[in-house]
From TrEMBL:
Its EC number is 3.5.4.16. Converts GTP to 7,8-dihydroneopterin triphosphate. This is GTP cyclohydrolase FolE2. The gene is folE2. Transmembrane segments: none annotated. GO terms for biological process: tetrahydrofolate biosynthetic process. Pfam families: GCHY-1. It comes from the Bacteria. It is an enzyme of class 3 (hydrolase). Belongs to the GTP cyclohydrolase IV family. It catalyses: GTP + H2O = 7,8-dihydroneopterin 3'-triphosphate + formate + H(+). Pathway: Cofactor biosynthesis; 7,8-dihydroneopterin triphosphate biosynthesis; 7,8-dihydroneopterin triphosphate from GTP: step 1/1. The record marks C156 as: May be catalytically important.
Length: 304
């Protein structure tokens, strides 16, 4: 029982002498702690972690070493770019016998945030924002990038114009021959017929990715999400009463947008973020397909 256990990754030579770009694990369950202003959460994450294997003769890496180092993230330490850089450096150091020079980590989780109702005091509910975070330390260069997904409602400007035309024509048909129309009659007509046509709106989502300051002590997730929701103006709601539903209907009616409008608004709101990428998707209620748009900085030399 005291005999040394064999380790073929050390004793055997690789059958084909070639380096490998990345080797590691995917889908590791891990508790993480995310701290944002007025929001500290312990969350369930799925982690992917890999290192490079440049030594062609080495049969395999030591996955248990990576696992144990990764497990440190689940011990209550707040997730931060500086902490992630330290973790990646430790992973590289743990594989010096494999001549490893680079490491990378991906975390996927959902950030839970409590959001208040639009109008009703004391009413709120939880909203989940999917997050994908990529951190890498490649030949000494550290990069950290986060992607968040935020849901919102979008009402089609074209559909709204067509709906208004139907209501206008119906109003003229009802009152066009009358030399004078009483306010009460107009109000009664609108109460019954203002929804002769309604513009189509749909649940929509924005996927936004930005680079994170490598020296920061926070990922800035909530600030990024708030910027997205303020840009679109109609974030989906959690708990509502009738007053909140009415307020949301008013927001949609006063905030018409095509998918192109949404992408441009969000891009403009991200001017303070590095290397922003925006992908918006309107899950059409008119069509069985989606409307989509992307926004990203143009390559050097393309503008102008």
């Amino acid at each position: 029982m005291n005999a040394a256990l064999p380790d073929v990754s050390l004793t055997d030579i690789a059958p084909s002498l070639s380096p490998l770009a990345w080797v590691g694990m995917q889908g590791i369950d891990l508790p993480i702690t995310v701290a944002e202003p007025h929001c500290r959460r312990e969350l369930h994450a799925r982690a992917d972690v890999q290192v490079d294997l440049p030594a062609p003769h080495v049969k395999g890496i030591h996955m248990s070493r990576l696992y144990r180092l990764l497990d440190a993230l689940g011990q209550g330490e707040t997730l931060s770019p500086a902490g992630l850089r330290h973790l990646l450096l430790a992973m590289i150091d743990s594989h010096q016998d494999c001549e490893t020079r680079s490491a990378r980590l991906r975390l996927k989780f959902a950030l839970l945030v409590r959001r208040p109702a639009l109008v009703t005091r004391g009413l709120s509910g939880w909203k989940s924002y999917p997050v994908c975070m990529d951190a890498s330390l490649i030949h000494g260069t550290f990069k950290c990038r986060v992607q968040v997904t935020a849901g919102y409602s979008s009402t089609c400007p074209c559909s709204a114009a067509l709906s208004r035309q139907i209501i206008e024509q119906s109003f003229l048909k009802a009152f066009g021959r009358q030399p004078k129309v009483e306010k009460a009659d107009v109000a009664a007509w609108l109460h019954q017929h203002a929804t002769l046509a309604t513009p189509h709106s749909q649940r929509s989502e924005a996927e936004v990715a930005v680079d994170v300051n490598g020296d920061g002590d926070t990922l800035g997730l909530l600030a990024l999400i708030d910027r997205i929701e303020q840009a679109v103006g109609t974030p989906v709601q959690t708990a509502v009463k009738r007053a909140d539903e009415q307020a949301f209907a008013a927001l949609n009616g006063q905030n018409l947008m095509f998918v192109e409008d949404a992408a441009r608004r969000i891009e403009a709101a991200l001017s303070c973020h590095a290397n922003p990428r925006v992908h918006v998707r309107h899950l059409e209620s008119l069509h069985p397909h989606d409307a989509v748009a992307w926004a990203a900085p143009m390559p050097e030399g393309v503008r102008g």
